[in-house]
Amino acid sequence: MQDINIEIKNIPKTDAIGVFGTGPFAVAFKKSCGELFKYIGEHNIQHGAFLGFFYDNPCVVPENELKSAAAVKLTTEQLVSLKLTGDEPIKHIIWEEGEYAMFIHKGPYEKLHQTYEYFFKTWLPKSNRVPSEKPSIEQYLNDCTKVAPEELITEIYIKLN
């Protein structure tokens, strides 16, 4: 794998709504996406970027226990106007402010693990940085239903201590 450009970015607190899932990422996340976009469509919610929150390391946590959430960005005003009670299938998710390593994966989602491996096994040991225990966040820059898998672009954010 070629070197990946990694930038350090300060990210402001960002509100999102999402659907949580547990299990293999490929299965649970896909199911959460379906539930999220069904809810958004039924409630005519205008939203920002599509996000994925991944709470566990798949190299350490058993596959059936992996936690993730499919989410979309909202403004604070949009979030308030939804008047969520907690009984809905969607939940408020906060992308915490802070310093993040950001890098881009281009290509199929099935190969994202290669980009993560480069970050954790090559870049991170040389960087003298320490990742936090917060979830990794993926921001999907194009639509997997409209572009070929080789053309998918995903920004990956890892919060740093």
Percent helix among the residues?
25-40%
Spatial strand sequence of the major β-sheet: 1-6-8-7-3-4-2-5
CATH superfamily: Regulatory factor, effector binding domain
Listing every helix as H and every strand as E from the N terminus to the C terminus, the arrangement reads: EEHEEHEEHEE
Question: In terms of structural class, how would the helical and strand content be classed?
Answer: alpha+beta
Concise account of the structure shown:
This protein is α+β, with helices and mostly antiparallel strands. The protein has helices at 25-42, 76-82, 112-127, and strands spanning 6-11, 14-22, 50-54, 67-74, 91-95, 98-106, 136-140, 153-159.
Describe the structure.
The protein has 161 residues and is of the alpha+beta class. The chain has a single domain, classed as Multidrug-efflux Transporter 1 Regulator Bmrr, Chain A. It is 25% helix and 34% strand. The chain has 3 helices and 8 strands. It has helices at residues 25-42, 76-82, 112-127, and strands at 6-11, 14-22, 50-54, 67-74, 91-95, 98-106, 136-140, 153-159. An 8-stranded antiparallel sheet has the order 1-6-8-7-3-4-2-5. The longest helix has 18 residues, at 25-42. The two termini are 27 Å apart. The model has no long low-confidence stretch (mean pLDDT 94). This is AraC effector-binding domain-containing protein. It holds the Pfam family GyrI-like. Residues 4-161 form the AraC effector-binding domain. InterPro entries: AraC_E-bd, GyrI-like, Reg_factor_effector_dom_sf, SmbC-like.
